[in-house]
Amino acid sequence: MTDVWDEVTGTQPAPETWLVLAVAAVALLVVSVRPSWLIARNAVTIAHEGGHGLVALLTGRRLDGIRLHSDTSGLTVSRGKPTGIGMVLTAASGYTAPSLLGLFGAWLLTTGHITALLWGATALLLAMLIMIRNVYGALSVIVTGGLFFAVSWFTEPEVQSVFAYGVVWFLLLGGVRPVFELQAKRRYGGARDSDADQLQRLTHAPAVVWLLLFHAVSLCSLIGGARWLLGW
């Protein structure tokens, strides 16, 4: 048990800069190309709905369940006061969650805690699985969590390092695109019950203000995370 704990809390060397850049390029390609994005976006949805769920619990709301759908949409249902700061934070946490998770992951990687990142992600996915309320959602979380566990348990440190950097780059880059997608949908009259519109009803601040906040968080997280990952 001590050996396992030492492995989790210990540090591992970062890959060389050229490899970090190569992994970033692959992540950018996955996010930019529509066919790969339609598949990989499921991971962003997991982070999005997980953000809603976690903040709902932290603000004292009761989490009833999370559903993930094959069209990469999702739904998190919580109970509590329908207005107030808890509801506002819960609604605002979805589009910001992937980027903030990526930023936190980038900080962990700069401190060398690669194994801690992989095991922490596995634990979060396992906790989220308990709240999933549909089959597709359960399969998505199980496959994703199984991948993290397999890499952290069965592969060499070099493979774990590349995988961890790839995940963090994907979260940082993948957190940007959904906000632009939401903005485009709203421009053409769609997504009128989006998180930004819910926040408008809760706070009376225009939805565009919340879109700007989502953009600011995702872009600042990408810039800050990239500087950490590249050692700048």
In words, what does this structure look like?
By secondary structure, this protein is mainly α. The protein has one domain (2-229). The protein is 75% helix and 6% strand. The chain has helices at 2-9, 17-32, 34-58, 85-110, 114-131, 135-154, 157-174, 177-187, 195-203, 207-229; strands at 62-68, 74-79. The protein has a two-stranded antiparallel ribbon with strand order 1-2. A hairpin with a 5-residue loop joins strand 1 (62-68) and strand 2. The protein is globular. Keywords: Membrane, Transmembrane, Transmembrane helix. The chain crosses the membrane at residues 17-33, 85-108, 114-131, 138-155, 161-180, 208-230. It comes from Streptomyces tardus.
Biggest sheet features: 2 strands, antiparallel
The topology string of helices and strands comes to: HHHEEHHHHHHH
Helix content: over 70%
Low-confidence parts: none
Number of domains: 1
**What does the radius of gyration come to?**
18 Å
Strand residue content: 5-15%
Q: Give the spatial strand order of the biggest sheet.
A: 1-2
Distance between the termini: 37 Å
Give a count of the beta strands, DSSP E runs of length 2 or more. 2
What's the shape?
Answer: globular
Features:
232 residues; mainly alpha; 6% strand; two-stranded antiparallel sheet; Peptidase_M50B-like; transmembrane; single chain; 2 strands
Question: What order do the helices and strands come in, and which of them pair?
Answer:
Layout: H1 2-9, H2 17-32, H3 34-58, E1 62-68, E2 74-79, H4 85-110, H5 114-131, H6 135-154, H7 157-174, H8 177-187, H9 195-203, H10 207-229
Antiparallel strand pairs: 1-2
